[in-house]
Design brief:
Shape: globular
Helix content: 25-40%
Largest sheet: 8 strands, antiparallel
Number of helices: 14
Radius of gyration: 22 Å
Mean pLDDT: 93
Strand content: 15-25%
Structural class: alpha+beta
Low-confidence stretches: 1-14, 469-478
Bound molecules: flavin-adenine dinucleotide
Length: 481
């Protein structure tokens, strides 16, 4: 029997897809709505993103990716590309379209001597870090091991090694990308340099990345872990000042939030405002202890789990069925002085959400030494990234927390109007422009015009193609694989 599926979106050309024919050409798996595994397969990280794709293709290799891209192009069905499925905006799934799911492409080749690795984009950052860590090596990603290397790398990648080794894209040496016309391109500083520039920050706009080649650093034993402090304005302000003044071996992520009822926190602190800070000192243990001492001295720690550890241990095992429902805003700010710290405390205390968080990441170091024009991530001189979020129970509560969120974000806004694309939700074109300020936007739009003139890859923080780009430069066909 021929199972068929139809487009339901009014923007697409209704079409018929023969599932048996598709299965016959693919090495991977096709999952349709009538299958038992469909509900599990369509789930993404964030709860409340409840979409029903017409089909989910768990691709096995780059050839499968080309087939799926061709299917999307020919059918007009909306194409969602998923690596780890952590998009806050819900871009890794679709109603009635095709999900190209890379999660079974987990090949990893580590060249210990050259300190490089080729990684397929179905790997999570935790999986990659564990495998590289077995050799005492690492590439910097973010703070959560279940995030896919696909999305975080294409967005930039700000994490525990950001001050020491820069963004994830600063360690990206090459990529293999299936373009909108289905061709597999090798992309690096020499081959398709325009595309190589664009995929380092420009997100999923330019094609499906099937493999990345990363530089690895010697990162073996670190001093790291969680330090929990009471979150008074004084402590918040001093924490940020210490993080800014610290040597760049230290990167910090400070979550100011009401303490959840975790067993590791004494009961009298549950529900109180705390800083749950993650610290990573990527250097000598003794020096690390010295650098972290001033943080411990800011107040009597409520919990102190900072200790020498192997780097991969910084990514604890995560529960597979954790699907938070959240709304968030991301921004860069220049400073957190005492009044700003008071603003943070006041807004968090006023929140009625199940959980309210202000996450503070002090930047600088290696990340800031790369020029703003060198990649599509233009925020090299931004000082501090702040993400504010409300977590709640049911998706239909979102509107309730919007005024609080936008009020909080507005109260924090300073001179730096930028945004990090990795943390953007579905916030409209204006915010995408803020992620790609000035000439970065024009350059990205021109490259988009050359590689994806019909905007096939549009389910993302979208950069519409500039039509004039198409004729000014041609793709070098000889560089396809
Ligand atoms: C809990 C949590 C913690 C986070 N922490 C950090 C952090 O510390 N630092 C940081 O920088 N970011 C962080 N992020 C943001 C994260 O980097 C982005 O959400 C990223 O896009 C997620 O990647 P993914 O592959 O898991 O998601 P997906 O939803 O699979 O991908 C997101 C989008 O990226 C594109 N994409 C993904 N893979 C590919 C590919 N192979 N080819 C082409 N396009 C692709 C698609 O457009 C897709 O819609 C965090 C997010 C969450 C939810």
């Amino acid at each position: 029997m021929t199972k068929q599926t139809h487009s339901t979106s009014p923007e697409t050309n209704p079409t018929t897809i023969s599932i048996p024919q598709l299965r016959a050409v693919l090495n991977g798996r096709v999952i349709t709505p009538d299958e038992a595994s469909y509900d599990e397969a369509r789930a993404v990280f964030y709860g409340g993103i409840d979409r029903r794709p017409a089909l989910i293709v768990r691709v096995a290799d780059a050839t499968d990716v080309s087939h799926v891209v061709a299917l999307a192009r020919e059918s007009g069905l909306e194409l969602a590309v998923r690596s780890g499925g952590h998009s806050l905006a819900g871009h890794s799934t679709t109603d009635g379209g095709i999900v190209l799911d890379l999660s079974e492409m987990k090949g990893l080749e580590i060249d210990v001597e050259r300190r490089t690795a080729w990684a397929q984009t179905g790997l999570t950052t935790g999986e990659y870090t564990a495998a590289a860590g077995a050799h005492g090596l690492a590439t910097g990603f973010g703070d959560t091991g279940s995030v896919g290397i696909g999305g975080i790398t294409l967005g930039g990648g700000v994490g525990y090694l950001v001050r020491k080794h820069g963004l994830t894209i600063d360690d990206l040496l090459a990529a293999e990308v299936v373009s909108a016309d289905g061709e597999l391109l090798r992309v690096d500083a020499e081959r398709h340099p325009d595309l190589f520039w664009a995929i380092r920050g420009g997100g999923g706009n330019f094609g499906v990345a099937t493999r990345f080649q990363y530089r690895l650093h010697g990162v073996d034993t670190i001093v790291g872990g969680m330090l929990v402090l009471p979150a008074t304005p004084d402590v918040i302000h001093s924490f940020v000042a210490e993080a800014d003044a610290a040597p760049e071996e230290l990167s910090t992520i400070a979550n100011v939030m009401t303490a959840p009822p975790m067993p590791l926190l004494p009961a009298e602190h549950h529900g109180q405002l705390v800083i749950m800070a993650m610290l990573v000192y990527a250097g000598e243990v003794e020096a690390g202890e010295r650098v972290i001492a001033p943080f411990r001295a800011l107040a009597t720690p409520i919990a102190d789990m900072v200790k020498p550890m192997r780097y991969p241990e910084i990514y604890p095992l995560e529960e597979g069925d954790y699907h938070p429902v959240a709304s968030a805003r991301t921004m860069f700010i220049d400073a957190i002085d005492h009044p700003v710290a008071e603003t943070i405390v006041d807004h968090l205390q006023a929140s009625t959400a199940q959980m309210a968080v202000a996450q503070i990441r002090v930047l600088g170091g290696a990340m800031a030494r790369v020029s703003a024009e060198a990649t599509a991530f233009a925020h090299r001189s931004s000082r501090i990234m702040v993400n504010v979020a409300a977590l709640y129970e049911r998706p239909n509560e979102a509107a309730e927390y919007e005024p609080w969120l936008s009020g909080f974000a507005a109260a924090l806004r300073q001179g730096d109007g930028g945004a990090y694309v990795g943390f953007l939700g579905d916030e409209g074109d204006g915010r995408i422009r803020e992620a790609y300020p000035g000439s970065t936007w024009d350059r990205l739009a021109a490259i988009k015009g050359r590689y994806d003139p019909t905007n096939l890859f549009r389910l993302n923080q979208n950069i519409p193609p500039a039509t004039e780009g198409r004729t000014t430069e041609h793709k070098e066909r000889s560089d396809s694989i």
